[in-house]
Design goal:
Elements (H helix, E strand, L loop, with lengths): L1 E5 L7 H14 L4 E7 L5 H7 L3 E5 L10 H28 L3 E5 L4 H9 L4 E5 L7 H14 L2 E4 L16 E2 L16 H10 L7 E6 L8 H11 L4 E6 L5 H13 L6 E5 L4 H7 L2 E4 L8 H8 L4 E4 L4 H4 L7 E3 L4 H13 L1 H17 L3 H13 L3
Parallel strand pairs: 1-2, 1-4, 2-3, 4-5, 5-6, 6-7, 8-9, 8-11, 9-10, 11-12, 12-13
Helix pairs in contact: 1-14, 3-4, 6-9, 7-8, 7-12, 10-13
Length: about 375
């Protein structure tokens, strides 16, 4: 079977890495997988090509939130080019001859319509909640229900958000290649160099967030939690690409205004996630909305104790609090209390880490996730 996987952009992120891992795994099982992105600058297709996964760029792009004059102009262009985009994708479908079109994200409307017109089966993967406003979901979901041959949710918690309560739809979380993520895989020299770079002392507790700088990731609430704890022995590293310049500047201003320059650092992108997680005594994801974030799975596989907001599929991932601590979103006090609770109770950290590692190796292994996708694709023959 030949599967075309459509992504929202040509950037390295959770959904793109998951798609690449699944494609690579299914290629080894006799499927043909092609990863498709919009025709735009980015760094993801290069990564996919280096791993010998077939790729393509097709004429589509997604609308933006109406939060600026620029976004209005962008969305007007999206509307104006919609028919031409659908026509161009249809032409490419005839050349690519896919058996299934797999759409990642709610707003994949151009490839969805093109697939419908070409009578190609569609698998529509609905991911993070709290990204789209309710009115937009209500407007788009009837089209999704009409076009999709199979709808897949990233977590049970998204069923109500995407109005699938009465439907028999598959739930497939994200997955990771756990063979590449284990404490023994850590480059100890790289870890020592990262600690030296930020002045991490022997007795310091290091809290790490692996996420792009973006308002939805909630790093500002973690910075506020660091201020409220007022402890010199806790350091916080925000590790990840600086995707939102305005928000990144806001975070830096908070760090300076709170006098946290020697305790909180925005590191930018780090080549090896195992290095950042090797530095961490604790992993923190203070997001306002998520699906089943890969960063949490990576911390689980590495045995790093986790504090995360109770959003999207995160509670299920953390076994409702038995594999990590859950806190409300946008709540610095709760973040601070959870970090303090781990520091004061090493046995709790050990228990949570052990359960998290077990789940990473079973529920969230890329092999298990790929099996589930293979079943969905084969059902469409």
């Amino acid at each position: 079977m030949r599967i075309l996987h459509f992504l929202p952009g040509n950037t390295v992120g959770g959904i793109s890495i998951q798609t690449l891992d699944v494609s690579e795994t299914l290629n080894d099982r006799g499927f043909e997988n092609v990863i498709v992105t919009p025709e735009e600058c980015g760094d993801f297709l290069e990564m996919a090509n280096e791993r010998d996964v077939e790729t393509a760029e097709l004429p589509y792009f997604l609308p933006k939130h109406f939060d600026s004059v620029r976004s209005v102009a962008w969305n007007l262009r999206w509307l104006a080019t919609f028919p031409v985009s659908v026509l161009g994708i249809r032409r490419q479908f005839r050349k690519q001859d896919p058996d299934v079109v797999h759409l990642n994200g709610l707003m994949m409307l151009q490839p969805a319509l093109a697939a419908k017109l070409e009578e190609i089966p569609v698998v529509w993967y609905l991911v993070s909640d709290n990204i789209y406003p309710d009115w937009l979901v209500r407007a788009v979901i009837p089209f999704v229900n009409h076009v999709a041959d199979e709808i897949v949710l990233i977590s049970e918690s998204n069923r109500e958000f995407y109005m699938q309560e009465s439907k028999d739809v598959a739930v497939i979380p994200g997955g990771i290649d756990t063979s590449q993520l284990a404490p023994q895989e850590v480059d100890k020299t790289a870890v020592a160099e990262l600690k030296d770079r930020y002045g991490v002392g022997q007795d310091d507790t290091v809290v790490v967030t692996l996420a792009k700088t973006h308002p939805m990731k909630g790093q500002k609430y973690a910075i506020e939690a660091m201020r409220r704890m007022d402890r010199d022995d806790i350091m916080y590293l925000i590790v990840g690409p600086e995707r939102d310049e305005k928000y990144t500047d806001e975070l830096r201003a908070m760090i300076q205004s709170h006098g946290l320059e020697e305790r909180v650092y925005i590191t930018g992108f780090v080549d090896e996630k195992t290095t950042a997680l090797g530095v961490a005594d604790m992993f923190l994801l203070p997001s306002l909305g998520e699906g089943t974030p890969l960063a949490i799975m990576e911390a689980m596989a590495m045995g790093v104790p986790i504090v995360a907001t109770s959003v999207g599929g995160v509670p299920n991932m953390l076994d409702d609090g038995d594999a990590g601590q859950l806190v409300p979103p946008a709540d610095p006090d709760s973040i601070a209390k959870a970090i303090e609770a781990y520091i004061s109770n090493p046995e709790l950290m050990r228990q949570h880490s052990a359960r998290a590692s077990e789940l990473a190796a079973t529920e969230f292994s890329i092999q298990n996730i790929s099996d589930k996708y293979a079943s969905v694709y084969r059902s469409l023959r």
